Amino acid sequence: MNAYLESVIKHVQEKYATEPEFVQTVEEVLSSLEPVISLHPEYEKADLLSRMVEPERMFTFRVCWEADDGTWHTNTGWRCQFNGAIGPYKGGLRFQKNVYPGIMKFLGFEQVFKNSLTGLPIGGGKGGSDFDPAGKSDAEIMRFCQSFMQALYRYIGPDVDVPAGDMGVGAREIGYLYGEYRRLKGAFENGVITGKGFSYGGSLVRPEATGYGAVYYLENVLKHFGEDIKGKTIACAGFGNVTWGICKKAAQLGAKVVTLSGPDGYIYDPNGVTTEKKIDYLLEMRASGRNRVQDYADNFPGVEFFPGEKPWNVKVDICMPSAMQNDVHLEQAKQIAANGIKYYIEVANMPTTNDALKFLMEQPGIVVAPSKAVNAGGVATSALEMAQNSERLVWTEEEVDKQLHQIMNTIYQMSVDAAETYGLGYNLVAGANIAGFQRVADAMMAQGIF
Ligand code: GLU
């Protein structure tokens, strides 16, 4: 490997040894930049990579809130403003028990490249809290969100940093967060946050956008191999907003999602999550706060539930891991290959461990697509929401969907072209990293060293 690249990776491995998820994403992204770095000595001269792996700034703040029983609780909040070279920081907020700086930084780093790939003017950021939303009442969620925003509001703004949802932060939380921001600022600056309800500035198609975008990207891959999505079976993980969008679009196009998963196991539905009733039920499952996928099997006949297992041993045409980071390990990757699955389309952020990803990419019969390209439709539609907010306009569903579709086609094509330009063949993973890097690198070089 190029000595400069190697030294930056080593530096991150040593400096952030206690943040393994961040080290993992840096290793993955930087190692695919090898041909670019070798061809452009100016990047090494400006030590561009050391600056790229260091967040511009990251805040830690205290979030205190009162439970319904009158007890007081204290959590930690973070916002990582990773890179603002091409636009205001943009990225979601994650509320989950396991959140810590390593998760914030891995997500922030991925976001920089993802947002760059969309071609829209958005920098990369991420935030969240180690607050566990499971089992909390609506009033507790509201008080927590209000307290969180009281700390965060001074660091964000429509031209500064624009948060959105992620795991544990959906439309309800966004509403409470925005309400508190508006109260504190005394202004209707709704471009400060995306994923809003339609009545106060949300964009049509935003709820479906990540899932729809993933399927639009998948269609591009299938087309490359002369195949059609119609009739294909898909294994998904999770049952949240992203998986819901995939089920909906796949069903519209004649494909079927046959697995869903949760912390309790996975379900196999041989008929597919294809009817309106089943697709809507996913929303109910999420809203219930029970976080149990078994409910789906209990509710629909002919569906099997496998407690404590993951769906990666099921024979399907396409795998779309759409739950969370490091869901697919080497063992599961080997199972996927043994099942003869041709399309491995990542959807969740970093759902594959690096050794599993390497293994899958080395299999001649498997096509791997990376999450930072596949799931970029969500944040891209957030940028369309920002555009509507600043124009004080509302675009039609057709208009937003058309733009989303176009953006996904462009992301795919840019990735294919970038890999080809650097002699890597049809490599969607390296192509996405290179294309995402290029735009941020150009902007950083142009803006001088800081
Ligand atoms: N959390 C989503 C992501 O990972 C959406 C971010 C946004 O819309 O800003 O891209």
> What structural class do the secondary elements suggest?
alpha/beta
For the record, give the distance between the C-alpha atoms at the N and C termini, rounded to a whole number: 27 Å
CATH architecture of the largest domain: 3-Layer(aba) Sandwich
Say which CATH homologous superfamily of the largest domain is assigned.
Leucine Dehydrogenase, chain A, domain 1
Number of domains: 2
- The sequence of SSEs as H and E is HHHHHEEEHEHEHHEHEEHHEEHEHEHHHH
Instruction: Give the overall form.
Output: globular
What is the CA-atom radius of gyration, in angstroms? 21 Å
Number of E-type strands = 12
Can you list the ligands bound to this structure? glutamic acid
Sheet with the most strands, sense and barrel status: 7 strands, mixed
Q: Which CATH top level class of the largest domain fits?
A: Alpha Beta
Quaternary arrangement of the chains shown?
Answer: single chain
* CATH fold node name of the largest domain: Rossmann fold
Overall mean confidence score, pLDDT? 97
**Which spans have pLDDT < 50 for at least 5 consecutive residues?**
none
Order of the strands making up the biggest sheet:
9-8-7-6-10-11-12
Query: How much beta, percentage-wise?
Result: 15-25%
Structure in words:
It is a single chain. The chain has 450 residues and is α/β, with parallel strands linked by helices. The protein is globular and about 60 Å long. The strands form two sheets. It has a seven-stranded mixed beta sheet, with helices on both faces. A five-stranded mixed beta sheet has the order 1-2-4-3-5. It has two domains: 3-189, 3-Layer(aba) Sandwich (Rossmann fold), CATH 3.40.50.10860; 208-374, 3-Layer(aba) Sandwich (Rossmann fold), CATH 3.40.50.720. It has helices spanning 3-15, 20-31, 34-39, 41-45, 48-52, 101-117, 138-152, 171-185, 206-224, 241-252, 276-288, 294-299, 330-338, 354-362, 371-374, 376-391, 397-421, 428-446; strands at residues 57-66, 72-83, 89-95, 123-129, 161-164, 233-236, 256-262, 265-268, 304-307, 318-320, 343-345, 367-369. The structure holds glutamic acid (GLU). Glutamic acid (GLU) binds next to β3 and α16.
